[in-house]
Design brief:
Number of helices: 14
Strand order of the largest sheet: 3-2-1-4-5-6-7
Structural class: alpha/beta
Helix content: 25-40%
Order of helices and strands: EHEEHEEHHEHEHEHEHEHEHEHEHHH
Distance between the termini: 11 Å
Oligomer: single chain
Radius of gyration: 21 Å
Shape: globular
Number of strands: 13
């Protein structure tokens, strides 16, 4: 059987790493199948296996070229079905396909630069999900929203458990540094590493740290993500709040430094207003770092009592949580990892598509 997998969307982000790990394990566990991988990111996706062919397909998601040229490319390889990791595909593609949808945040928190992008997104989302043989999502909230908004039958939707991406290996000689001195950090600091979309709630996080420092509490915040430092509005908010010395942008660090940053921190702050599966918790969970997160249904369902919660819509709630934190014993997330791992995800996917 030939199976086509569309990975044209790949970037250096957690959902892309999730997709790559899932595909690698799917291919390895099913050597009887042949896989056609379509991607424009050859530097990110690499896999050596006899039953796989990688097709360099430099056609952007949501483009006109996607609509007029991609069906021919997909059809020429006689795939029994396709797997898409988002809703972008040519409307003219009529063969069977499964769509894995990471969430519906762009319906609620529309990070669009113009109306054309917004309505193109909504049009393609509805059309391509409705034409899917199955729609796969990670949580009950997304499933309920698909049923309500698009009038899907429950049988059309399957829940696919996510998994936390394995952490990079640490080379021992990489950790022989004073992380506080190297990055000019206060003794106590928290880490944020989740993007800068509207739903990520980072404006409120800046407000929280402004109030901390008006109370003379010396606690720093580290933005550990290479792209977030380019957010001009965020930088202006930091300057206006007089937090230039207390909020740090750190990127391009090696695994050893990253390991130290997490291990020496008070914990990570996850103030999101919307999440499907929290892939960005992979590092703190792998490194047993304390997690302080929004009290969202999806997160509490996955993490249970192993992490601490606050109200994402309340500056006071986040502030009080940080003020009352004392460094305790290192958490143990082994129970979470035993449930949300690559083996369970691949087994579930195989049952759905076969």
């Amino acid at each position: 059987m030939n199976i086509g997998i569309d990975l044209r969307f790949l970037e250096d982000d957690m959902y892309s790493h999730f997709a790559v790990e899932l595909v690698k394990n799917l291919v390895e566990k099913n050597p009887q199948n042949n896989y056609n991988i379509y991607t424009s990111a050859t530097d990110i996706f690499s896999l050596e296996a006899k039953n796989i062919r990688i097709h360099f397909t430099n056609i952007k998601n949501g483009s006109l070229k996607e609509q007029f040229q991609l069906s021919k490319i997909f059809s020429r390889d006689n795939n029994s079905f396709m797997i898409f990791f988002n809703h972008f595909k040519p409307l003219g593609y009529k063969w069977d396909y499964y769509t894995i949808i990471s969430g519906l945040k762009d319906i609620f928190y529309q990070n669009f630069s113009n109306y054309f992008d917004k309505y193109t997104y909504l049009f393609l989302l509805e059309k391509n999900l409705k034409n899917s043989k199955k729609v796969l999502c990670f949580d009950e909230n997304t499933k309920d929203e698909l049923i309500e908004r698009f009038d899907f039958s429950e049988s059309k939707i399957s829940l696919l458990p996510g998994f936390f991406i394995p952490n990079k290996k640490v080379i021992q000689n990489e950790v022989q540094i004073d992380i506080h001195s190297k990055f000019s950090l206060a003794d106590k600091y928290f880490i944020y590493s989740w993007g800068d979309g509207i739903e990520k709630n980072i404006d409120r996080l800046v407000q929280v740290f402004h109030r901390l420092h008006t109370q003379n509490l010396k606690i720093d915040l580290v933005f550990l993500w290479d792209k977030i430092g380019k957010n001009i509005d965020l930088r202006h908010a930091i300057v206006e709040s007089n937090l230039k010395e207390h909020i740090h942008f750190i990127d391009h660090i090696n695994p050893g430094e990253e390991h130290l940053l997490y291990s020496k921190s008070q914990g990570v702050i996850f103030p999101s207003l919307y999440e499907s599966f929290p892939f960005r918790l992979s590092n703190p969970i792998a490194l047993n770092t304390p997690i302080y997160a929004s009290n969202l249904r999806n997160i509490s369902h996955i993490c249970g009592d192993e992490i601490e919660y606050f109200s994402a819509i309340s500056t006071n709630s986040i502030l009080e949580k940080i003020q009352n934190i004392t460094k305790t014993t290192q958490p143990n997330y082994s129970e979470i990892l035993s449930k949300y791992n690559i083996t369970n995800t691949v087994d579930s996917l195989q049952k759905i598509i076969h």
